[in-house]
TrEMBL record:
CDD domains: FHA. This is Uncharacterized protein. The keyword Transferase does not apply. It comes from Zooxanthella nutricula. The keyword Transferase does not apply. Residues 1-21 have a biased composition (Low complexity). Keywords: Metal-binding, Zinc, Zinc-finger. Residues 198-248 form the FHA domain. Residues 1-30 are annotated as: Disordered. GO terms for molecular function: zinc ion binding. InterPro entries: FHA_dom, SMAD_FHA_dom_sf, Znf_CCCH, Znf_CCCH_sf. The lineage of its organism: Eukaryota, Sar, Alveolata, Dinophyceae, Peridiniales.
């Protein structure tokens, strides 16, 4: 009687953790020319009656499959991830900010910080087209939108760079407020992570005391944010605080980036009978 191969050899390769059965030498006349694809997948039901080889040891020496079986095993490469580079998204840029935002240096900085595949400026359409993975597109869009928001109160390339890639090595900020009208006095505040805020208003408890008909008791706060490497201003007033002529978000609903050279006004510069420049020129030194 012809001896049948072990069960594992009949049904398919041994499973992980299962000892491999010893390979019984196959006589030359019983060898086959091609490997059984069902056996390789563990699905061959013919066992010893199969017309194809159940392993390289059953192949005829010199056959094409025998040469193939001797080659090093390789892993099929997965290129599906490259599809992510084809993802794209558009972000609108206000026309008055196009000149400052759509520069080569800002484009390079966005790609450096986010790893995005490409950032295309389309100034005539006031938009940016972004290319990259979903995560990269989210990062670029978020940074651009944040830059756009803060540039509503004055747009400079330096401000944009500070938003996109803030420096986190600053340990303090020296803020000097130079009065723009004789009714105000100058003030200097040294801010650190331990003492990160300075308040201004008509109440005597404020570090910077300001008297004026439209000045609130707690009017505004200047804050040093070490994590973002920047100084911000927050409005707490009733009648408004204005940065470079535009009113800040009301009642502490958001903080706005304060930059060197900004004009910080404590009343509406367009109000009739008021002082057009009732406020300060801002000087900031980071260290």
């Amino acid at each position: 009687l012809q001896q049948r191969p072990p069960a594992a050899q009949q049904g398919g390769p041994a499973k992980a953790g299962q000892a491999l059965p010893p390979q019984v030498p196959v006589p030359e006349g019983q060898r086959k020319r091609k490997l059984c694809i069902h056996y390789e997948a563990g699905q061959c039901r013919r066992g010893a009656e199969c017309n194809f080889a159940h392993g390289p040891h059953e192949l005829i020496v010199g056959s094409m499959d025998a040469d193939y079986a001797k080659r090093p095993q390789t892993t099929r490469m997965d290129f599906t991830g490259l599809e992510s580079l084809r993802n794209s998204r558009t972000v609108s840029i206000p026309s008055e900010q196009v000149k400052s935002i759509m520069t080569k240096s800002v484009r390079s900085l966005l790609m450096e910080v986010t790893g995005a595949h490409e950032v295309e400026w389309e100034p005539e359409r006031c938009r940016a087209t972004l290319h990259g993975t979903t995560n990269q597109l989210d990062k670029v869009a978020r940074l651009l939108q944040r830059a756009v928001v803060h540039c509503n109160w004055g747009v400079t390339e330096q401000k944009i760079r500070n938003v996109i890639k803030p420096r986190t090595d600053f340990r303090s900020a020296r803020v000097r407020l130079s009065p723009m009208c004789p009714a105000l006095q100058g003030a200097v505040a040294s801010l650190t992570p331990e003492r990160s805020q300075v308040s201004m208003g008509s109440d005597p408890s404020n570090a910077i005391k300001v008297k004026g008909e439209l000045v609130s008791r707690s009017h505004a706060v200047i804050e040093f944010d070490q994590a973002r490497g920047a100084v911000y201003v927050i409005d707490f007033s009733t009648n408004g605080t204005f940065l470079n002529g535009k009113r800040l978000p009301a009642k502490a609903s958001g903080k706005v980036l304060l930059s060197h050279g900004d004009e910080l006004l404590l009343q509406d510069p367009t109000i009739e009978g008021g002082i057009a420049e009732f406020g300060y020129m801002v000087n900031i030194e980071m260290s």
